[in-house]
Design a protein that fits this description.
Layout (H helix, E strand, L loop, with lengths): L109 H23 L8 H26 L3 H6 L1 E5 L8 H17 L2 H14 L7 H6 L1 E5 L2
Helix pairs in contact: 1-2, 2-4, 4-5
């Protein structure tokens, strides 16, 4: 005698329904109902998409600076001395006698520095003599002293103005050297330029000008590694070549 199954047709495949089977998953996505990132970030879908052990370089590109860009005003791997101010010649970078700071041009040679000072002093002295002659005779003591004082004051003003403009006096231009800030090779700031000139001139007005200039110059001869005279030390400047 045949009996009918009151519960209806049997499940496909015969037997009891299975709850072990997972529902079909949408293509290219996560299983339906699977937990997702609480912040809405996409989850890695393969071994190549997994982040590195430390999440990469913080704030920068692989192998690059952590800050992602070079210091202000400089290109990658570039020294401040590689950015010449107006009138600045080739740096001589990598040539014998190059400066002790990477990218710094060769230091100005002593013959060139001495000749530059002599050129400037003669130019200023001629102007001072022309100004003094109408008022005093150079044959008497007061006339020669007045010419010396005037020459020193003129040199102070001339040197301070020229150095704060581009680091070069007429003598330095002729000998192809210039004064620069030691820290970055830039043109001396006005305060540095005037300090440099004042330390060179004012002690000479007090006493023993020739002795003071000799001491100042010899100090630079023995100074290492920047060959700074006393007036360079005071102003934090250095004399470099422009060729």
């Amino acid at each position: 005698m045949s009996t009918s199954n009151p519960s209806g047709p049997e499940p496909e495949g015969g037997g009891k329904p299975s709850f072990d089977k997972q529902p079909p998953q949408p293509a290219g996505g996560t299983p339906e109902g699977a937990p997702s990132d609480p912040y809405g970030n996409p989850q890695p879908s393969g071994p190549d998409d997994r982040p590195g052990a430390y999440g990469g370089n913080y704030g920068g590109t692989p192998g690059g600076s952590p800050y992602g860009q070079p210091p202000y005003g400089q290109g990658p791997g570039q020294s401040p001395y590689d950015q010449p101010p107006p009138g600045y010649g080739p740096t001589g970078h990598g040539t014998p006698g190059a400066g002790p700071v990477p990218g710094m041009p060769p230091l100005g040679s002593w013959p060139n520095r001495i000749l530059a000072q002599l050129i400037d002093y003669v130019l200023v002295q001629v102007v001072a003599l022309l100004l003094v002659l109408p008022f005093a005779s150079l044959s008497d003591r007061s006339g020669s002293a007045g010419a010396f004082w005037l020459a020193c004051l003129l040199y102070l003003v001339y040197d301070g103005l020229m150095l704060s403009r581009d680091g070069q006096t007429l003598g330095k231009k002729a000998m192809k050297i210039r004064a620069a800030m030691l820290i970055d090779g830039s043109t001396p700031t006005p305060s540095a330029a005037w300090t440099r000139s004042a330390v060179f001139i004012l002690p000479a007005l007090v006493c023993c000008a020739a002795l003071w200039w000799l001491i100042d110059g010899l100090f630079g001869v023995f100074d290492k590694p920047y060959r700074q005279c006393i007036h360079d030390k005071a102003a934090k400047t250095v004399v470099v070549s422009t060729v």
